[in-house]
Amino acid sequence: MTKTYWLEHAWLDTHVEPGVAVTVSAGGSGAGADGRVTDVRTGVDTPPPGAEILRGLTLPGLANAHSHAFHRALRGTVQVGSGTFWTWREIMYSFADRLTPETYHALARAAYAEMALAGVTAVGEFHYVHHAHDGTPYADPNAMGEALIAAAADAGIRITLLDTAYLSSGFGQPPNQHQRRFSDGTAEAWAERCSLLKDRDHARIGAAIHSVRAVPAGELATVARWAEERRAPLHVHLSEQTAENEACLAAHGRTPTRLLADHGVLGPRTTGVHNTHLTDEDIALLGGSGTGTCMCPTTERDLADGIGPAVALQAAGSPLSLGSDSHAVIDLLEEARAMELNERLRTRTRGHWTAAALLRAASADGHAALGWDGAGSIETGALADFTTIALDSVRTAGPVPRLGAETAVFAATAADVRHTVVAGRHVVRDGAHTLVPDVATALADAVQALRS
Ligand SMILES: [Zn+2]
Predict the structure, then answer these.
(1) Least buried of 194, 273, 338, 410, by fewest C-beta within 10 Å?
(2) Annotated catalytic, 274?
(3) Structure pTM?
């Protein structure tokens, strides 16, 4: 079965093209079933008969490369008051304590539906809440991961489940009471459990190392090897906090980046998340190995982390992707512009990235970091994942359409997303989710269930 979309304006990697007809193979019902672009025709002034009309500017689908779905429950409760990342973490743990496969499924389904409404077509879920509250495995040891995979299917988006090894609370410290449910005991046991998870049409299984705090140095290579054998993406929180750097130096006499390099963790399928407080040698190690960098600017500013050296990392060879991480907001356009605007504040100069380069981080390079090849551009053979932003809203009206990339990155917000198509299927139509009828109520109910 094929289907044709007529795009009033389309971002084709380098420029905005008016009047584009995109034919997709829209087989099956779930994201990923078939769902590729089979033909792109430009210069199509009027919509072909039977075509679905996407008015506005259609972009490749956005990739949210770093998510902790349950953090969505914290929005609006942890922004007030003083403190640091570490005091925020205590509140975050109080929500993690209460999750069950059922409540997590409901919350993630709603959060992923919010992502679809924001133009996100693939999410990288950095998942570490594996077991029951006291650390006992569920009857299905992957009940929590499966709940997240099902939640993405229900919300109509793709997921890369970055199943996370989390074995210690600090260098040489066992997991604390909150972290027992995160731990498999050893990296070997983590690998055994992860190996039970299988890819499917809408889901890829990847690996993650929570951080050098949470995985002892002697266990890092086991996780890296598991990912290497499967050619799966491997993500790791890296140097988000200076305290982590100091503790790592004290324990191992080297920086977290150097420790990861020495244990075979770095490489082109690896992504460091945050990469905030790095030395020049760290930047050279990350760039030289082709290790990616996932910046999460709205979270990093919310948590007072600092501003990572994204310009230097990219120049050294580290591809950039973006994530909404703690979901203080879910808006990849905001993440993209925040990366540039952070750099402007830091350097007091402008123009570190073009709008096109920022869009690339939010789409093609984000998908690549999550192991979705052939996604993030509107071309024949690519995954039929795209999103359309309005050009006639109060935020986007005015600029000429050929400046679409600038409008998308510097003017639009998630509220301007009108359509989201995943695997050729219309998941958001005219600003409404087609599978989750009332996303706001779903979010409210799911958060309330965790509070009561
Ligand atoms: Zn994170």
Answers:
(1) 410
(2) yes
(3) 0.96
